[in-house]
Structure formats: C-alpha cells, structure tokens
Amino acid sequence: MKLFSRPILTLCAALLPLVIACNPDAPYHYPGLQSVSYQGTDAIFPNPERGFYSPKEIRDTRVSEVSKESAEVNRKQGRSLFLLEFHLTAFVNSDISDEYLQNIGKYFASLRTTGSKCVLRFCYSNGFDEKDKPWDATPDQALRHIAQLKPLLQEYYDVIMVVQAGFIGSWGEWYYTENYKDTPTRKLIVDALLDAVPAERQISLRTPAFKMQLYGISASDTLTRETAHQPTVKARLGGHNDCYLASSNDQGTYSGAKDRKYWEAESSFLIMGGETCGVSAYCHCEPQADNAKARGVLADMAANHYTYLNQSYHQGVIGRWRSEGCFEDIQRRLGYRYVLEKGFFTKTPKAGEDFRSVLIIRNDGFAPAMNPRDAELVLTDASGKEVGTWALESDPRYWMPEEPTTVDQTIKLPSGLSGDYTLWLNLPDPCSTLRGNPSFSIRLANEAVWDENTGYNKLLTISL
Q1: Where are the strands (E) in 151-224, listed by range?
Q2: Which segments of 165-290 does DSSP mark as H helices, in order?
C-alpha cells in the first residue's frame, strides 16, 4: 500500500526548513521539559590544553620560570600553552646536574601559578652540521637522563599536556642522529618515556611510521572508541608533525597515503600538533586550482584533528594564513571548541526530587579534548555557595567535531532548598593541584555563560 506519493514527499521536504524555523527546538524533542537556547560567540579566548603555543628553549639556569608577564601576554592573545624545550647539551656525556634538574622543576611549578601548560621536549643539539655534534647522547646515557627526570615528570604531569619523544637527533626530532640507527635502540627511549610519564599523558612520535615500526602495528589497526584513552602503549602514542604542509609528504613525515590515513584515524583519539617549517603550495587556507593534491589548511587540520601548533614558526606560513584570512579561524578551532546549542530542563523543579537536564553540545574545533577532564553539574545559591555537585556520565574526550553530543542526566536536588539557584556546567582539570583554578577549566564558546571567578558555565536559573 502506497501511503505517500512522491509529490507529497517533495512538498514535505520543501516545508521542513519552515517547520524548523517555527520550532527552534527541532530536531530535538523533549516533551515536558523547558527549553533554553544559548548564543554562540566568535570570540578568541584561552582554554587549557589547546591552541597555538609560545616556544621557550632552555639551555641553562639563568632563567628558571615562565614569567607572569609572558603568561599574561599569551592569554591576552588567546593562548595558554608553551613549548618547553630543555636542551641537555651540557650533559651529553654525564648525568644531569642537580641545579639543572631543580631549574626544570621551577619551570613546571611556574606553569601552575600562571595558569599555563606545556608541550614538553628534551634534546641535545639544535643543529645538523659537523660542528653541532654530538647530535644526541648514547642510549645508555639518555636512559639514565630519563630515569633522573622521572620524579619531575611524575610530580608535575598536571601541567604537561603532552611529551614529544625527543632525545634522539638534532632538536630531538629523530632525524640527524649518531646513536639511533635502528629500531630497537629507538624503542628503548620510547619504552622508558612510557614508564616515566604517568599513564594519563601521551607521548608523541615524529612520524606515523615510527609507531608502526616500533610496536608492530599495521596501518589498518587504528584506535577505536572502545580502545582509545586506555593505559596501553597503542592508546598513548600520538604524533607531532614538525614540517606541516611543507611539501607533498611534509618533508618525509609521510611515506605514502597509508601513513596519512593512519594519522587521520588515530588523531580522533590522540593529540596531533607540531609546527610548520616552510612556505609551499600546500599551506594555503583553501584549495588552489593549480594544486589538486592540496585540500587547504582548514580541511587538513579538520581531517587530522589538530590540537596545537607553534605560533612563532614558520612566520612565512603564519603570514600567509593571516593574509588569506584563515588565521583567526585556526586560532578558534585548534583543539576543542565546545558550544552549548540547547538545554532542556525539568519545568517545575522541586527540592528533594529528580531534576532532568539535557544538554546539546556542539564541537566547532578540529578535535575533542584529549587528556582526562572532569565534567559535572554544580548548583549554587544566591550567594554563590555550592549546594550540590553531580558528576556527568559523559566524557568530554568523546565530544567529537562531527556531530552534536547529547548529555542527558537526571539528578536529585537536595532537600530543604528554597529560593533562587543557578545550575552550572563545570569542566575542571581532574588533578587536585589545578582543579580549583578557573584558568585550567574549560570555557564554553557562548555569550554570557562564563564565570571567570569560578570557571563555571551558566546553564539555568531555577526557583525552588
């Protein structure tokens, strides 16, 4: 039996935009709940563990901190991330001195006080000429250094976003090397780092081939939602591309199409970042008619789920992005950018009874949040005092860019409440050292929801 003719179906399709326009809650349907709409914003602002970073190379102990002033400049420009690149040149043939180790600890401690985090790397040389040798330490010496650094990495992992494998080759980029010509010796370094760095943090390798070669992983054996964010080797090894969009293969980063597809799939669940290294036909904002292989930086960053990049290098590439008009879009979209679209809540809340909240959250970023992140509803009274906190049964690391996430949760309001209360979404850092600092909480990209004093995002005012 034919229920609908083709003309009627065509008419329904034509009328659908009008129906949605008349019903702002479409396509969401939560009968019996009151709806709240939220206004998004294009503002550029700092958020933890994402965005452009400011690089700092530390070669001695004359400076021992990320200064308050440099952190403030960073935040005013929408950044909260630094690259801390510690050069161990003076210790290529010896243990790291106590003075230098203490200096590293002071740098980490300063990140806590300035509301910043870092991409971390250790290296021995910053050149590839004969005069720059030794380019790296022997495996035995490097392993001794990692053992010395382990207590610091364990104590301060809270302010480390990700650790680049480093140690091998000039700049720690695993290319110009004297001591690591084969896979087993390289694997020694990665294994040691996986042990030294807490399981809550990832280690980044310079190319996708290194992960596959070191651990016998095939290009088709990528992470899934079920295997991601686990304390396994596979789920902790990400990548950093330090010649991003510099050529057809990013100056040797990729050996073929399989490598590219592998990183694209893996980067849904692993941190991807790095830096550009030179102007090329591949680093335009949008696809170019004379280069069919280049899809444009915005599409490429989306495909590879980019979380961070160097804002200082390469300035020719950064300049192109500015002149072609996509730099600010990249600033907004590196990593996550969570936006509240809609909220649906119990219409007549009562103290001591169930209260349902449904949040529709869109991710306008290139990637989700990658490190562990708490998510909770917080209820405060008129004075701002917390009267209830409820952990969400939803992990922000799975709030993907592809489609909006629905967070649907019912809580029981405390008994005996009376008056006006405010319901908030709080996305704090789970580490106890940072949890109470709003600089380390995630701010939603919405108008009039962020409270800079608490790090909470306002959802609703209710009367009980």
Answers
A1: 160-164, 203-205
A2: 183-196, 208-215, 233-236, 257-266
The number of angstroms, rounded, from the C-alpha of 417 to the middle of its chain's C-alpha atoms is: 39
Partner residues linked to 420 by β-bridges:
463
Q: What CA–CA distances, in Å, run from 344 to 40, 46, 304, 408, 440?
A: 17, 28, 33, 9, 27
DSSP 248: T
Q: Give the phi and the psi of residue 135 in degrees, each rounded to 5.
A: -75, -25
Kindly report the number of other CB atoms within 10 A of residue 458's CB atom.
Answer: 19
C-alpha 215/C-alpha 266 separation (Å) is: 15
- Report the phi/psi class of residue 330: left, alpha or beta, with left for phi > 0 and alpha for psi in -120 to 50: alpha
CA distances from 441 to 188, 370, 386, 408 (A): 36, 14, 17, 21
Q: Which residues pair with 380 in a beta bridge?
A: 386, 422
Structural contact between residues 296 and 285, judged by C-beta atoms closer than 8 angstroms: yes
Instruction: Give the pLDDT confidence of 350-401 residue by residue, as tens digits.
Output: 999 999 999 999 999 999 999 999 999 999 999 999 999 999 999 999 999 9
What architecture (CATH level 2) is domain 337-463? Answer: Sandwich (2.60)
Per-domain residue ranges of the chain: 51-333, 337-463
> 74: phi > 0 → left, psi -120 to 50 → alpha, else beta; which?
alpha
Q: How many residues would you count in the chain? A: 464
443 pLDDT more than 80 = yes
Domains 51-333 and 337-463 share a fold: no
CA dihedral (189, 194, 196, 200) positive or negative? positive
Q: How far apart are CA 247 and CA 291, in angstroms?
A: 12
Cα 24 to Cα 327: distance, rounded to the nearest angstrom:
32
Strands of 246-403 (E only): list them: 272-274, 306-310, 338-346, 354-363, 376-380, 386-391
In 3D, which of 370, 375, 380 has the Cα closest to residue 435?
Answer: 375
> 181-224, pLDDT tens digit by residue?
999 999 999 999 999 999 999 999 999 999 999 999 999 999 99
pTM assigned to the model: 0.94
Mapped onto helix, strand or coil, the DSSP state of residue 365 is coil
Q: How open is the CA angle 164-169-175, to the nearest 5 degrees?
A: 90
Which amino acid is present at 38?
Y
**Pair type for strands 51-58 and 81-87:** parallel
376-380 sheet: strands from edge to edge:
386-391, 376-380, 420-426, 456-463, 450-451
CA 142/CA 148 separation, integer angstroms: 10
51-333 topology per CATH? TIM Barrel (3.20.20)
The per-residue pLDDT for range 212-270, each reduced to its tens digit, is: 999 999 999 999 999 999 999 999 999 999 999 999 999 999 999 999 999 999 999 99
